[in-house]
């Protein structure tokens, strides 16, 4: 089963896709529990609440006709770094003088965790992502994303794109926030596959990424979450050790697919990420050189819930 967030004239609502591909309106079935992702993740038993609401939820029309939004509304998005051997190798390539530094990060007991995005900076399915105007080397990073309840339980999984500037991070490891945190640098979706759902094994899921440029494949890669050095539960435990998240949180688990040094994203590129058992997330790189100025009329993707 997959929980998703979708737009309506009356505001965002939550829906459920069952194993047969049918859609149901969870918000109508239980307006209090499913008023938002935040209200759902604050429940003592989020998965149990989905099952209870699904039993009495009304059907939705064709899922293809729905305007899907990023599955966040008040949740902070965090990320774990250098959790795959390929990621460690890529950090050595971009920062030759800092290779030992990333070796330590990969082997250490404590994982690298960093803040990635506020919900208003997260793009949903089909919404644009961005590359920094002051960076010459930019890549998408396809990642399994953990959806965590307010108590730190892994209640589901979605797809994340941790868009990054390798040139800025390669200059100095302390530049990580500028390389990772900026307008349009994070995408999530299309839905949350609930933990324990049939066909989903987050520890052995195939991850693929294709980048299309002018209708042709500019890059394609594949990996498996079995290559993750740390388990989802271990990463979640470290995140919640000294932090509280009353509306839940999303945690990206790192990437095992990194384009070669000769590749950089360009405006108009289309990034497709697919994770077995979860779905496919598609975003186009915006032609805009910077974030929308106030009053510009260009909408931000998925504003936070009131």
Overall description:
The chain is an alpha+beta fold and 306 residues long. It folds into two domains: 2-69; 76-284, Fumarylacetoacetase-like, C-terminal domain (Fumarylacetoacetate hydrolase, domain 2), CATH 3.90.850. 18% of the residues lie in helices and 30% in strands. It has eight helices and 18 strands. The strands form three sheets. Strands 1, 2, 3, 4, 5, 6, 7, 8, 10, 11, 13 and 16 form a twelve-stranded mixed sheet that branches. It has a four-stranded antiparallel sheet with strand order 15-14-17-18, with no helix packed on it. α4 runs antiparallel to α5 (99-107).
Topology:
Blueprint: E1 2-6, E2 13-17, E3 23-25, H1 26-29, H2 37-41, H3 46-54, E4 58-59, E5 68-69, E6 76-81, H4 85-94, H5 99-107, E7 112-117, E8 122-123, E9 138-139, E10 142-148, E11 154-162, E12 164-165, H6 166-171, H7 176-180, E13 186-194, E14 206-213, E15 216-224, H8 232-239, E16 249-252, E17 270-275, E18 279-284
Parallel strand pairs: 6-16, 8-13
Antiparallel strand pairs: 1-2, 1-5, 1-13, 2-3, 3-4, 6-7, 9-12, 10-11, 10-16, 11-13, 14-15, 14-17, 17-18
